[in-house]
Amino acid sequence: MEKTKSSRYIEAVGRRKSSIARVRITPGEKNEIIVNDKPLFSYFKTKELVATAKDPIEKMGLDQKFDVSVVVVGGGVSSQADALRHGLSRALTEYDKDLRGRLKKLGFLKRDPRKKERKKFGLKKARKAPTWSKR
Predict the structure, then answer these.
(1) What is the strand order of the sheet 38-39 is part of?
(2) Model confidence pLDDT, tens digit, residues 27-46
(3) Mean pLDDT, rounded, for 96-111
(4) φ, ψ for residue 33 (rounded to 5)?
(5) How far apart are CA 15 and CA 22, in angstroms?
(6) What is the DSSP letter of 85?
(7) SS3 assignment for 86-128
(8) What is the CA radius of gyration of the chain?
(9) CA distance 115 to 90
(10) CA angle 92-72-9, nearest 5°?
């Protein structure tokens, strides 16, 4: 495995909907993930969200190698977990270029482009029209 530039930390950005996650991975012995100054389990309440966030580091077998610190802004908790997964995957590819193929096959490096559609004038929501009445 090749290391890039310095062994201090590697930073990457992950996005999903309106969530942005700035991820820093540091080679360390604590092996913990801190999200907005809270442990992963207290920030993401459900097992599914925790699993989504930890997926790249666990599936690559690197969960005992890194301390991860994340700053997440915007969106809901589900999209924040996806943004964290995207950022963590990008940081791991900077750490080791050989992981790129495996992460790409799992779909972790693809930025999900779907966003909320804007509301149009004359409508109640993006597509919902007011109730039509004959008289």
Answers:
(1) 10-16, 19-27, 66-73, 33-35, 38-39
(2) 877 778 899 999 999 999 99
(3) 90
(4) -115, 120
(5) 9
(6) H
(7) HHHHHHHHHHCCCHHHHHHHHCCCCCCCCCCCCCCCCCCCCCC
(8) 19
(9) 21
(10) 35
Categorize the per-residue pLDDT at 7 as very low, low, confident or very high, splitting at 50, 70 and 90.
low
CA 3 to chain centre: 22
Which element (helix H / strand E) includes 50? helix 47-59
Contact 25, 68 (CB under 8 A): yes
How far apart are the C-alpha atoms of 65 and 51, rounded to whole Å?
18
Residue 44 has a CB neighbour count (10 Å cut-off) of: 24
Nearest to 23 by CA among 62, 69, 66, 59: 69
Give the Å distances, CA to CA, from 118 to 17, 54, 57, 124: 13, 32, 35, 11
The H or E element that residue 20 is part of is strand 19-27
Give dist(CA 119, CA 70) in Å, integer.
32
pTM of the entire structure?
0.84
